[in-house]
Design a protein that fits this description.
Radius of gyration: 29 Å
Strand content: 5-15%
Helix content: 55-70%
Shape: globular
Oligomer: single chain
Largest sheet: 9 strands, parallel
Number of strands: 11
Strand order of the largest sheet: 3-2-1-11-10-9-8-5-4
Number of helices: 38
Distance between the termini: 36 Å
Structural class: mainly alpha
């Protein structure tokens, strides 16, 4: 857009409305052409009626009555139609977001919060000391960690078509000056919408873990391989320009991680083979990209030695290139890059057993077409390949020992180009490759290992019994366990010999750790950086993990008079509210064990702790869980200060507010003082991954917001409480206790609650969505505590209750205020000044805005017991009303989304399409529970779940 004026709100949203109208029209035409006029007419009547419901022109029952008893053969295309309406509306919103950002920039407005440009302004205004900044950012790290937690319901094929439509819509708005161009783009879009309509929305089979690995890695090719190194370079340059003479960020600040293939907590499909596959496929992506970039560099750096001098270092590298001295005899950069390429290929072959792309390995003359310019992408080739056409030079090439060795050679080329005045060339493709290798190394991403502490205890008990160390480890007290484990960590004697006979579980667990050792040996220590202990409650839980790492070859007990060391960080994960409360004491006690403190010392006194958002919320409710996390961080920061460790927190956040979701930038600023300290890691899960990282612009914005929040939280005073911190903390202690009590009265104390939950939501059907490899429950029980957080949250979201994101908060606030205007004023003041409290209420408002208790009442009608239905839904309805009332009183906003107009507009645009999806889901749930278990009815339910998840955008 060329105009730089500030538009009115109506003007600003007109392009969005036009896009939605255009895409809806194309979809409608497609449905009419391929499903017939009768189906189209029904869909159109339902759509019109749903919008009348939004405008409050008719009752909710109007849509329900239209769908009552509809034939399943008609219901299926109707469900698909509204699912695709929502998907296309989401697409239009994403384009509008970029369009509005361009308008703001063109108008010369100040950069928006969460952008690095805004953060740099704040840092400049603070006039910080360079040495202090260097100390705070020592070992800086921002690490988004992709997990396979299953909340992304879209198939990859659907996602790909959606991406193509998005690209065409962007081009349409730029290049439609003539009628011919407009017609051409419309035709292309119609083809893609037809493809979308003819593509099945849901999977027939559950995703395998190998599929999840491939899906996670595809984001590197889509965006991350280009965006992450570019941001790292930008941030480093910006900070060093502000504090010259201080070597800030010697390592890239942004380094991604993954759990896919290493997280075996509750996932029986993670094996030793899977660990190797996950690591090798990631490395294959990295090596394949490096080799392709080296091919392109070899083509482009064609400078002649007759025209441009080179440094002695480049001359020496040139001698290692083409075996025939006559090949590119006067083009030293080409010869040097060819030699580097051969060595990188040799490194890949050494680490993986195969070169990811055989076409970039040979010694052909690239300028004469000796290798393909567009290299074939082989992701995940692990074993040897007889098809690799290796030249004698390629076979003779020596592998690089480390990524830094590759960088040394590329740096020599960079220095030579700059010495001859060709820095402009050095700053292009060569610089991008150097930043990429510095960021991703040979491993691409750090693969975390994770397992439940209960499994560790079983396996360690078996190992100790087999070795004759102790016959009944579980019978020992905590102190006895710690003494025994500490002693075992000191000895070089392994517990297992080559002929040990173990149970299937123990054999599998030891095999996985040994597979991780093999990965570290071939790809480096950063390939497997952490071992996470789920449900960690004690020091012995941490030492048990350490003993397994020792037995697997990752922990070295050291010489008799030397300290132990372990390349893998041992990370306790505190998940329940009780464990969060005791987490600091557990960590302090672990650091008092000499052998464990020595392990931490060997890692530069860096200790990572993971905080679980999902289970704490399911355990105690929204407000109590959020405050338990904040309190835990305060206590952990104090332990770090007293013990002299550098604390890094790993936030196990989900996509929804009920699982720690919300805007990442706000969440980082809402952390207590000292909790970020230059580094943080956080999980990225399910549908949030695609929303954030599928498109380069979105990936750049989301990643820079993580760094912006980290820099501000580390270098500036963002808490805003000053001397009033302790009284505010005590107030929150009181509120959290009240909120937890209200939540527990419903979820844990009301008889029949679990039955109500199972009957009034599609929780039983969530397991059939085939959206992940993990089972829906940790154990085959009816307990809420054993149900995984994702189906718990997703089920309430589908039923539009959104209970995990708000329940109990209204009661706590109302009880504490007690009608006292001074107390209300106190909370209003905290809302204005304290990022934590403001973020809690803002996220709660987002959830409430997506809830719909009139729709939820329809789901409640599915509960057989009328008295139970009235009791529990009555409690939910009353608390919902109370929470909205309290939010308005404290914030002064009569509209839930007054502080988030973009989400308000999104809900306005998309939510009428939810009406028929919810109504149809209730109708089909009623049928299946009445005995109609036909495959078409089951499919219809799954289709409605897919559509609703797409519409809500963060459903699990």
């Amino acid at each position: 857009m060329s105009e730089a004026r500030i538009e009115t709100e109506q003007d600003a949203t007109r392009p969005l409305r036009d896009d939605i109208r255009f895409l809806g029209g194309v979809l409608g035409d497609t449905i009419r052409d391929h499903e017939g006029p009768e189906v189209f007419d029904l869909i159109e009547r339902v759509r019109i009626e749903a919008f009348r419901v939004r405008r409050e022109e008719v009752e909710r029952s109007a849509v329900a009555e239209m769908l009552d008893g509809v034939d399943i053969a008609v219901a299926l295309p109707l469900i698909r139609a509204f699912s695709y309406f929502v998907l296309l509306a989401n697409l239009a919103e994403d384009i509008q977001r970029d369009r509005r950002r361009a308008v703001h920039e063109a108008a010369g407005e100040p950069p928006q919060d969460s952008s690095l440009a805004a953060t740099y302004r704040k840092l400049d205004a603070a006039a910080l000391d360079g040495a202090e900044v260097a100390g705070l950012l020592a070992d800086a790290l921002v690490s988004p960690v992709i997990t396979a937690h299953p909340t992304e319901t879209r198939r990859r094929t659907v996602f790909d078509v959606q991406t193509r439509i998005t690209e065409l819509m962007r081009l349409r708005q730029r290049y439609t000056e003539t009628e011919r161009e407009r017609t051409a783009f419309e035709l292309k879009i119609r083809r893609q919408v037809l493809t979308l309509w003819r593509t099945a929305l849901i999977r027939l089979q559950r995703l395998r873990i190998q599929d999840e690995i491939a899906v996670g890695l595809r984001y590197y090719e889509l965006t991350l391989f280009d965006v992450i190194p570019a941001i790292n370079a930008e941030v480093r340059a910006a900070l060093r320009s502000r504090w010259p003479g201080v070597e800030l960020l010697p390592r890239p600040i942004l380094r991604p991680g993954s759990w896919i293939g290493g997280d075996r907590d509750g996932n029986p499909y993670v094996t030793a083979e899977v660990v190797g596959t996950a690591a090798h496929q990631a490395a294959s992506v990295a090596f394949g990209r490096y080799l392709r970039e080296l091919v392109e560099l070899e083509k482009s750096l064609s400078q002649s030695a007759r025209l441009v001098p080179v440094t002695p270092e480049v001359a020496a590298l040139a001698a290692t290139g083409y075996p025939d001295p006559a090949t590119h005899a006067d083009e030293p950069y080409r010869r040097a890059l060819h030699g580097i390429r051969l060595r990188v290929a040799a490194t890949a072959r050494h680490a993986l057993g195969v070169v990811p792309d055989e076409s970039v390995e040979g010694s052909g003359d690239l300028s004469q077409g000796g290798a393909r310019s567009s290299a074939a992408r082989v992701v995940g080739a692990v074993g040897p390949s007889s098809s690799v056409a290796s030249s004698a030079a390629a076979v003779a090439a020596q592998p690089y020992p480390t990524p830094q060795a590759v960088l040394d050679d590329l740096d020599a080329i960079d220095a030579s180009l700059r010495a001859s005045g060709d820095g402009l060339l050095a700053d292009d493709r060569l610089a991008a490759l150097r930043y990429a290798i510095e960021t991703f190394g040979f491993h691409l991403q750090g693969l975390d290992m994770r397992q439940n502490s209960e499994v560790h205890e079983q396996v360690v008990a078996e190992l100790l019994a087999w070795a004759g160390v102790h016959p009944d480890y579980p019978s020992l007290s905590e102190a006895e366990r710690v003494d025994l484990l500490a002693a075992e960590l000191r000895t070089r004697r392994p517990l297992l010999g080559p002929h040990a006979r173990l149970s299937e579980l123990a054999t599998k667990e030891i095999g996985i750790v040994r597979a991780a050792r093999n990965v570290v040996q071939t790809l480096g220590t950063e390939a497997v950086p952490n071992y996470i202990i789920s449900m960690c409650t004690s020091v012995s839980d941490m030492l048990e993990a350490a003993l397994l790492l020792k037995e697997g070859g990752l922990l070295d007990p050291g010489e008799p008079d030397g300290p132990p060391s372990c390349s893998v960080g041992i990370v306790p994960l505190f998940e329940t509210i009780e464990d969060l409360g005791a987490g600091a004491a557990t960590l302090a006690a672990a650091l008092d064990v000499p052998v464990y403190r020595e392990l931490v010392s060997a890692k530069g006194m860096r200790q990572e702790v993971m905080l679980g958002y999902s289970d704490s919320n399911k355990d105690g409710g929204y407000l109590a869980a959020n405050w338990a996390l904040y309190r835990a961080e305060l206590d952990l920061v104090e332990v770090a200060r007293k013990s002299g460790i550098r604390l890094r927190l790993f936030h196990g956040r989900g996509g929804t507010v009920g699982r720690g979701g919300g805007r990442s930038y706000d969440a980082i600023l809402a952390q207590p003082a000292g909790a970020v300290h230059g580094s943080l890691r956080l999980t990225e899960q399910g549908e949030v991954i695609a929303a954030k990282y599928a498109e380069p612009g979105a990936a750049h914005r989301n990643l820079e917001s993580l760094i912006a929040g980290t820099l501000e939280s580390t270098l500036l005073d963002v808490e805003g409480l000053g001397t009033e911190a302790e009284p505010s903390y005590e107030l929150m202690d009181d509120l959290a206790a009240r909120a937890r009590a209200a939540y527990s009265r419903l979820v844990h104390e009301t008889p029949g609650f679990v039955e109500y939950f199972r009957q009034s939501t599609p929780v039983a059907e969530v397991a059939d969505l085939n959206i992940g490899s993990r089972p829906a429950s940790r154990k085959p029980t009816n307990s809420v505590s054993d149900l995984r957080a994702i189906p718990w949250v997703m089920s309430w979201s589908q039923a539009r209750v959104m209970l995990p994101g708000w329940y109990g908060t209204g009661s706590a606030l109302e009880d504490w205020i007690g009608g006292d205007p001074d107390r209300l004023a106190t909370l209003a003041d905290l809302y204005r000044r304290w990022p934590f409290f403001r973020t809690v209420l803002s996220n709660l408002a987002q959830v409430l805005a997506k809830s719909d208790l009139d729709i939820a009442a329809r789901y409640a009608e599915l509960v057989d017991d009328a008295a139970l239905r009235e009791q529990i839904f009555g409690m939910i309805r009353d608390e919902h009303t109370r929470t909205i009332r309290m939010h308005a009183a404290i914030t002064g906003n009569n509209h839930l989304l007054a502080d988030n107009p973009s989400l308000a507009e999104s809900i306005h645009n998309r939510f009428p399409y939810l009406e028929p999806l919810n109504q149809m889901q209730v109708e089909l749930l009623r049928r299946i529970r009445a005995g109609d278990d036909s495959e078409l009815v089951k499919r219809g339910i799954l289709l409605t779940m897919n559509g609703l998840a797409t519409a809500l955008r963060n459903s699990g």
